[in-house]
Amino acid sequence: MSNILFSNNNRKNSFMLRVDLTYIYDLLQSINLLTNLDHRFYPNIEHETIIPNILKAYHMLSPSIYIIRSSYDCIQQLKDLLEEYYKAYVDSEQNLETPYIDNGKLQNIANTSLKLQFLLRSELAIQQVYLITTKGAYDIEMLMYAPESAFSSTLLDKIPETKYDITECAKALAFELPTACAFHLMRVFERVVRKYCSTRKTEKVDNNSSETLGKIIADLRPANEICTKDQNCQKKAKSSLFDILESIKDNYRNPIMHPEINMNMEEVLVLFGVVNGAISLMLKELNVIEMLNEQT
């Protein structure tokens, strides 16, 4: 994880940034160490501790990702003081002089650090930072960084074009946008249904076809009944699966397309489980059908 970007520039088109709390803690701690360099209050400070503290603070103040505006000028001032002191120390080392200690500059560093400490605490106190909590059985790390893990393990292999909606669906669930989550979930569902129907039927069902989802699902029943009557047909499907598909279409997919319908988190978590179950059943049958197709 990068450190904080103390910059007045834009956020490079990033509208949401991950906050590294350990970095903020370490940053404040390193600045606090610099406040102890004032020889008037800490006359017995050892020279060996000065340079490590200066180097640590300097690197902690290096550019990174967060935006801190009010503290920017003070940070730049402190970085300049630290760099100036360190260069003087290196020069004295190269010239084999006695260890470089400039109490006036150390006092200036300590005073600037105290000022920055106050500014940062004040500015961090008003930052809009939120903690994302676990959503049902779905871990936040999984939803954000391995969203495909929330679905059937073979989904992306069978239907790679679902990747975008899988990612957006998982992010919407993580950030408590239930209606958006349901919308992308239904897009995944529809792609799987179309793939399933294409595999079961002789004619291919195009993902971009204008044929409605309702008609695609409805056409499965008579085709399956014909297969059921044929003793040699090995592609029989359980009618209960068609009932599940129609139920999802009627109770969720179609209503979600209307702007007056909004989902809540409890509803979308239930829907997530239902759709995942239906997808797993379809993918399981797809594997069997594809194996049969390879044999013929």
Question: Could you please describe the fold and organization of this structure?
Answer:
The chain is mainly α. The chain is 63% helix and 0% strand. It contains eleven helices and no strands. It is elongated and about 95 Å long.
What's a concise summary of this model?
The protein has helices spanning 21-35, 47-60, 72-94, 103-125, 140-145, 155-158, 163-174, 178-200, 213-229, 239-256, 265-295. By secondary structure, the protein is mainly α. The protein folds into two domains: 21-125, no CATH class; 140-295, Four Helix Bundle (Hemerythrin (Met), subunit A) (Up-down Bundle).
Task: Present the secondary structure layout.
Elements: H1 21-35, H2 47-60, H3 72-94, H4 103-125, H5 140-145, H6 155-158, H7 163-174, H8 178-200, H9 213-229, H10 239-256, H11 265-295
Number of strands: 0
User: Roughly what percent helix?
Assistant: 55-70%
How far apart, in Å, are the first and last alpha carbons? Answer: 53 Å
CATH-derived topology of the largest domain: Four Helix Bundle (Hemerythrin (Met), subunit A)
Give the averaged pLDDT, no decimals. 80
Quickly give the structural class. mainly alpha
For this structure, the quaternary state is single chain
Count of runs of 4 or more consecutive helical residues: 11
Instruction: Note the run of SSEs as H and E.
Output: HHHHHHHHHHH
Summed up, the domain count is 2
CATH architecture of the largest domain: Up-down Bundle
Q: In CATH, what is the class of the largest domain?
A: Mainly Alpha
Percent strand equals under 5%
Poorly predicted runs are 1-11
Biggest sheet character: none
Radius of gyration equals 31 Å
Envelope shape: elongated
